[in-house]
Amino acid sequence: MAKNDPYAALKFKEFNIFLFMRFLLVFGWSMQFIVIEWEVYSLTKDPLALGIIGLMEIIPAFTMALFAGHIVDRSEKRNLLAICIALFSFISLGLFCLTWDVVVANWSTKTILYGIYTLVFFGGFLRSFFGPTIFSLIALIVPKKVYPNAATWSTSTWKAATVLGALCGGFFIHWIGVDKTLCIIFVLVVLALIFTFRIKKKPILNTNKEESVKDSLAVGVKFVFSNKAILGALTLDMIAVLFGGTVALLSVFAQDILKVGSQGFGVLNASISLGSIVSMFLTTYIPVAKNAGKKLLASIFIFGICIIVFGLSSSFWLSVVALFLSGAADGISMVIRQTILQLKTPDEMRGRVSSVNSMFVGSSNELGAFESGLAAKLLGPVRAVIFGGTMTLLTVTAIGFKNKILRNLDLTKDYEGHEETN
């Protein structure tokens, strides 16, 4: 049975192409995030400027999310993804131009900073389409009986790319500089675009052409809010990420507190994703479907503790361990959440449901970055991180006691149901 085969999804050729394409894209995207965070803080020495990066991305990502889901459900997924990647390549090229030595020498810091914020803004617009398109495309590449396994491999690939992207981003800044690193990112994105066309076009499952945009969006939102399992998981993760997001402040800790430079900055970023990828690969052998609710609550509680330890630490290696364990806990949380979404979402609504998910969780990463930057400005970076971890613990405890449906969630029957009907 597929649920006992940790490599079930990898037996499909197009899924392997999809994983490679996604690895290239996320690897480049992850490096780009690291490089821009480093460049902006180097230009301003202001933690609030890092928070503004998150704000510039969340505004278009959040406001466009539902409409993007509607477009995704009505569109052919392969071509839509190719368009998004092509447009993203222009953003990478623009960031390279803004950090090019010739430009930096002749343009003011304010002009370069505003240019970076503008490109990040358009990147947020594209991101509102990326998540729903990728989520929907997976369901068209593999059969339903291997959805959970495909979700785990897809998320693990994303995290593996994030690990290497974060690590290489820090090292490449040190070795070749910001501008040349962004040039490499542009090349990676173009390669991802090329491999996207090796995936065949897929059928459009939502053929209800008479449904208005307003009604279409209302149906997607209503589905999410009427499904207590999905709503509970998304709400919990959103609040935890909102208050527990320390990634936006890592450049501050690397430069001013731990004093480990760009290489240490890369290691700190990579340690989070490395923890996630280890736990995700383990879940391919040890499924999380049984008692999924309790495991979700426990993983986010552990995540909060690790964030507090990181905030209190003055040791580089203790900080690395704390971030690694926070990533491992977060990885388990993501696998559970993605499994819930894949098993409980109808095919014709995947774009809209994924868009609501991005509004809850994806956008909260950027909003969390803004919250972290603002808190660091008001409280200082150490107190800001400790505050975030404490709020995460209080939130998961409250939801655990209050939300009985989430606490007792078990996905075993949903899993077996898909096995029997496919």
Automatic annotation (TrEMBL):
The chain crosses the membrane at residues 15-36, 48-68, 80-102, 114-142, 158-176, 182-199, 230-254, 266-288, 300-325, 382-401. It is found in: Cell membrane. The keyword Cell membrane applies. The keyword Zinc does not apply. Keywords: Cell membrane, Membrane, Transmembrane, Transmembrane helix, Transport. GO terms for molecular function: transmembrane transporter activity. It is a multi-pass membrane protein. InterPro entries: MFS, MFS_trans_sf. GO terms for cellular component: plasma membrane. This is MFS transporter. It comes from Neotamlana laminarinivorans.
